[in-house]
């Protein structure tokens, strides 16, 4: 479960908008996170709080396959990204590094920039804190939820191998 404020954007937010290419020679994820979305929204990395939720339209994460894009968002403290659709490689990269994604047209239509939500991934529910209205989404399969709970694919596999 996460609780955060909505940051709402449009369609086709590409990986270069998520983390500009000029920073890709910096391999420190925390440093990268300070530049997350800065060309789209210069206020984002300074004003967002851990757990905040990005809501966007179609094709979020399109463009290159750079893993730094979802990593920058996760290290910035983003609790989840809700969108109409995701670029396929971004979707898998995000899950692999432990960044939860939700596909929901209804949520994108209903959620408003700045409002606070509580997301319960296992129940497939996003609830607006101010009004109590809850929106349903198809929960992720158990194996993806396990990867997210463990903090990403590498920590999940390390744990499995220890068992």
Name a few traits of the molecule:
34% helix; single chain; Aconitase, domain 4; seven-stranded mixed beta sheet; 8 helices; 163 residues; alpha/beta
What features would you describe in this structure?
- By secondary structure, this protein is an alpha/beta fold.
- The chain has a single domain (2-162), classed as Aconitase, domain 4, CATH 3.20.19.
- Helices cover 34% and strands 18% of the residues.
- The two termini are 26 Å apart.
- It has eight helices and seven strands; from the N terminus they run βαααβαβαβαβββαα.
- It has a seven-stranded mixed sheet.
- The longest helix has 10 residues, at 88-97.
* Unreliable runs: none
CATH architecture: Alpha-Beta Barrel
Order of helices and strands: EHHHEHEHEHEEEHH
Structural class: alpha/beta
Radius of gyration: 15 Å
**Domain tally:** 1
- In the CATH hierarchy, what is the superfamily? Aconitase, domain 4
CATH fold-level assignment: Aconitase, domain 4
Total DSSP helices: 8
- Sketch the major β-sheet: 7 strands, mixed
What is the overall silhouette?
Answer: globular
Number of strands: 7
Residues in helices, as a percent range: 25-40%
Name of the CATH class = Alpha Beta
Distance between the termini: 26 Å
Mean pLDDT across all amino acids: 96
Strand coverage percent: 15-25%
Strand neighbour order, sheet with most strands = 4-3-2-1-5-6-7
